[in-house]
Write a structure and sequence with these properties.
By secondary structure, the protein is an alpha+beta fold. Helix content is 41%, strand content 12%.
Length: 162
């Protein structure tokens, strides 16, 4: 029997779980509200630290979360770097804004290591309806979790049980 749909969590709780301070959560909610985001439908995507600029943070986000997956090639493969160089990251970001309501929010307090940027998406005045939400990995769990490596013992027990 299936577990059913995942419980939807408010963006402020997800941000808190990600280690964002209450002050910064207030800042993020204020920014989202000023852009007329529907707060109950917003999703956390990532936190990026950049020593350079917001543009660089967006490039890092796109490079990190939109990788080429080809059968037989690891994400560390140089071919992936080659394809990343071919992507127009400015156009990619524009499409993320238009189709998924993506926004990059610079947190107010800079650290010694650089500026912190939060990436959130959701319906807003520019993007009232998200397109193809089922194909966008961030919208399924409202959190980005690294895939868990399966224990070889679990794999063999699954094989034996079936």
């Amino acid at each position: 029997m299936g577990r059913g749909p995942a419980q939807k969590r408010a963006i402020e709780f997800v941000l808190s779980d990600q280690g964002v301070s209450e002050k910064d959560i207030g800042w993020v909610l204020s920014k989202l509200d000023s852009q007329e985001y529907l707060l109950n439908d917003c999703h956390y995507m990532a936190r990026i630290l950049s020593k350079e600029s917001e543009t660089k943070a967006k490039e890092i986000f796109i490079h990190r979360y939109f990788t080429l997956n080809m059968k037989g090639l690891s994400s560390e493969n140089k071919l992936n770097d080659f394809f990343q160089e071919c992507i127009d990251k400015k156009k990619m970001w524009t499409l993320l804004e238009k189709n998924f309501g993506a926004i990059c929010i610079k947190l107010p307090d800079a650290s010694v290591n650089g500026e912190t940027y939060l990436f959130v998406c959701g319906p807003n005045k520019k993007c009232p309806e998200l397109i193809n939400t089922d194909s966008f990995v961030f919208l399924t769990t409202n959190q980005r979790n690294e895939p868990k490596k399966q224990n070889p013992l679990e794999m063999s027990s699954l094989r034996l049980a079936g």
